[in-house]
Amino acid sequence: MSTVTVTTPAGRMQALARAEMTLIGRNKGTLFAALFVPMVIPFSMKEAANGMDLKGTGLDVGTVVLPSALGFSLLFAVYSALTNVYAARREELVLKRLRTGELRDPEILAGAALPSVLIGVVQCLVLAVGCAVLLDSGAPSAPHLVVLGIAAGLVMFAALAAVTASFSRSTESAQVMSMPLILVSMMGSGLFIPLEVMPDKIASVCELLPLSPVIELIRGGWAGNLSAWDALGAAATAVAWTVLAVFAVRRWFRWEPRH
Hints:
Layout: H1 9-26, H2 28-35, H3 37-40, H4 46-50, H5 61-91, H6 94-98, H7 105-134, H8 143-166, H9 171-177, H10 179-188, H11 200-206, H12 212-223, H13 228-252
């Protein structure tokens, strides 16, 4: 009597994630960018933060550097690395072959994203603990806002990675295509200069960038200076970007190489 193997979406995504983790481990360049770049850059910002005039902002060096460290992790360990993963698997025809099996499209994208997201989670935990100890920033005043910010960032940048990969013709071009959002986020989302010390008109525009609500939730949750209304606004902005990214993926994601 033959047995029938019943698979579930969770099981299929788990199997795909294991295979993807193996492939990421073999790509030394992607692994280095994902693991080490976000760990090094934020600590080089400590001296710059020491020179900032933070009076009246409710911030200190710890609450400036720590959210920036987590933001770098989301940009490099999740967004940049996952953009390369999607582009590479498409060029290798892996995505096309996976679509011929049991896996559904959302399962393929989610399964491929899980290793990068997991790396991002571990990195955020290590950076949060390290910064809290080394910079004496203590525990977050509103930990639920910090968790909400990190979770929103993981989902949003996984979706944005798929969007960016959609318009990348190759793995090499994916690295170039991801740079504009990374650079804009660095300059305008409070990684180098907190929005609290920017002129009001510039800050009001920068608040609409994808990474800005994530940093606002993390920084406000740690410093305890974020009102419920501001937290709701930041969460709404993050949700809006995520919905737009998911729509763009459904509309424009390419499963086969561009010719």
